[in-house]
Protein: DNA-binding transcriptional MocR family regulator
Amino acid sequence: MTTDLGAQDLTALLDSARQDYSELAGRGLKLDLTRGKPAPDQLDLSNELLTLPGEGVLKAADGTDTRNYGGLNGLPELRAIFAELLQVPVAQLLASGNSSLELMHDAFVQALLSPLPGAQSRWVDQGPIKFLAPVPGYDRHFSICERFGIEMIPVPMTETGPDMEVVTRLVAADASIKGIWAIPKYSNPTGVTYSDDTVRQLAEMPTAAPDFRIFWDNAYSVHHLTDERVEVADVLALATAAGHADRVFVFGSTSKITFAGAGVGFFGASEANVKWWLGNLSKRSIGPDKVNHLRHAAFLGSAEGVLAHMDKHRALIAPKFQATLRILSEQLDGTGLGTWTEPKGGYFITLEVPEGTASDIVARAAEIGVALTPAGAAHPLGQDPKDSIIRIAPTFPTLENLEAAVLALTTCVKLVGYEQRLKQQ
Amino acid sequence: MTTDLGAQDLTALLDSARQDYSELAGRGLKLDLTRGKPAPDQLDLSNELLTLPGEGVLKAADGTDTRNYGGLNGLPELRAIFAELLQVPVAQLLASGNSSLELMHDAFVQALLSPLPGAQSRWVDQGPIKFLAPVPGYDRHFSICERFGIEMIPVPMTETGPDMEVVTRLVAADASIKGIWAIPKYSNPTGVTYSDDTVRQLAEMPTAAPDFRIFWDNAYSVHHLTDERVEVADVLALATAAGHADRVFVFGSTSKITFAGAGVGFFGASEANVKWWLGNLSKRSIGPDKVNHLRHAAFLGSAEGVLAHMDKHRALIAPKFQATLRILSEQLDGTGLGTWTEPKGGYFITLEVPEGTASDIVARAAEIGVALTPAGAAHPLGQDPKDSIIRIAPTFPTLENLEAAVLALTTCVKLVGYEQRLKQQ
Structure:
């Protein structure tokens, strides 16, 4: 550890970091580590979709003309594929438009404007309501709550999911807490997968609110980075067994399986929830884009087909994660300036830097042309109280650009870290 | 006119209708005139979409990779095509998912949950609000208001659009009236096109509500049935000129141009409205299905390309409208039992039958296997106070089935009409 270094040693390290930084500044970099976007070569894996469903192919397995109106539930054969992967009975899984974020947003809309199963009234009539926000978490989740004026209560993430001691205490005591965000597998941004015990507690815990919902965003259900296909417990089955069938809203999508902008989103839940959902949806839609469903069913084929396809993604992006981890290790091991996650799947690495330095690091990186997700983005309202979390999204850049960007990032970590340490002496 | 017939003549006519009816009942018909759906041969016109955008074709004109996230406004080249057809400046026209109904629903959602430009508060905080509903009108419009508990005030449709004397009086006096539904061209179900004077009044009229909106559902903008391509005045330009730029929400879609279930919806409005819309939308979506936009832009090519494509639709469906009108005329002329519209475009013919008979006619038709839109559907809450409006949707059945269905319908009109008249004697 270098934390015992004297002022002289620190000054030397800082000088070295400054030299590296000014050298990088001269290079005119333009690199981007901000968003969890697939790279073009990943999208290429699904280019068959550009000519599917194919000439004259227009009917679903049951004979439905996919081109016409109707079929609010989505194409049965596509739902069957993802029912298995998302752990929802096919009759209770709906296929919809091109985004699960839309479905999560609309779940709030419908709960705000129509009483949920189990609710005494719609949320908009219940006065201020709250949501639990495991942190670090996904900024777009938090933006939805913020947009509707829903107060978020941060809950620390642990190695096994949200701190369940905190969660169970809060939800038992406060009926205005209406739900919790959850990314159960390869979580954004920590990579954590919820333990069986965490899932069981979420499913079984008493809640003061009768209309409590777990927003189970299974965004990375098949997004493995290692040989281990990590599994997560079946929350819907556990909740149902515990008498809380209506507690769970399951979300998923093909955004990071096929095309990020032209995939299919899924919503799954209990029978009562699905009936409620369809009742509201029927006022909004005459049916989703079933041709795109047909296209996806033809391309992916089966749940096993999805997993085989995800192996191709892994072959492209695992080296990017490895390169990122290697550079972090080469540059920061032993400095005491950073620790980071080593995810087994998903799209992110979380870098934790000394308290009070994350914003400055992101700003310094921006000055030399390296865009990072704003520090704080992983926290409600963009406010990280420790200012110590930086999310790295390694997938989109080329390997070469990624390596340059991560190296620049570690240079900024050292620059800001040593500056801070010198000031503190 | 047969209204002067004596009891004996009436009885003979009724007997004849009864005989026809029981003969039809024996045929085991299974015919459907309910929904304004394109027929399979119409959908075939766009089958190129089943293999578009084509192998390796993935970039927008500006180089954007359509497969990835982003591009909340929709594909610029597709917006340019429809900007012309929907009379909205391209910068203010957004391309979205597969349905304009969704956009209309979501316009209510956003106005309920976020203050509109010009609004003092969001609609959900304004107490009971109302909407004007021109009748006969479109049932799915009315269902959206009903779903959100918004009271609808029926306004009679005339030959030139909604009765503007009623409209202007109501909106000037009542600040709780927040908007009006409008299908300006080839209206559902009457086929009426708003006169220039109607459009001008809608654009210019004083409204007590500062956040009044015209929901301008230009669903049939290019859906001509005759050589005359009927035009409607540019409501957005007129409203802007009158100092009411924010008054108009324009909606449109390709649902009845390409694939009914797999097309593209459009939203257009003033700059301030679009900014408000995108601000809310950015919390919901990372962008629409741009690959489908690319597919559509490649297929349709230009505004002129859309019009040429619509000529092909016309060639398929104009004969169905003509056959319907011919049978109505052959069977009902001179009976005094019905009058009907002769639309120059759109998807519907409205049949007006004697007061108090529409529901019974629809029920009798159902009994012999002919499905009609429920009587009353063209009115708020499904309640037609005169019980006299029947909507005929001629496009979906084959010509043969259509002719059988319309003949059966006219038999039911005679059966019920003569029964009523005999009772009234």
In short: Chain B touches chain A through 58 residues (CB under 8 Å).
